[in-house]
Amino acid sequence: MNLEPVSAVAVAALGLAGVYLQSRRKGHAYDEIKHELELLSLLPETSPMRAPLQARIERSLADLIANRSRKSRDWTGISFTSFLLAVAVALTFPMLQGGWWWLLSVPIAICTLFGSVGFFDAIALTERDATGKRVTHPIQAPAEAPTSDPREEPPN
Question: Closest by alpha carbon to 92, among 62, 115, 122?
Answer without folding.
Answer: 115
